[in-house]
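Memo to structure team: turn this sequence into structure tokens by end of day. - J.P.
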Amino acid sequence: PECCNARLGKLGREVTVGGKTIIDVVGFKLNELLQWLDLLEQCFSPDEKKILAAFLGACQERIANLLEVGLEYLSLDRTLPS
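Reply from structure team:
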């Protein structure tokens, strides 16, 4: 009950990146996630962008591949069997 079915502690539910919590982000459909990642770069300094570039690039590429095959309705919070 304390975690509100998020399977995260209080701190994990409160930390934000670009104004979104991890709970918000994993609930995005893939096309929404890709848009958010594109906007996320505006939240960081040039030095931080250098650090994030490889991670963001890899995420964006993988998400784009899934969108290409028509899986835009998926979100990261779905269970594997679904």
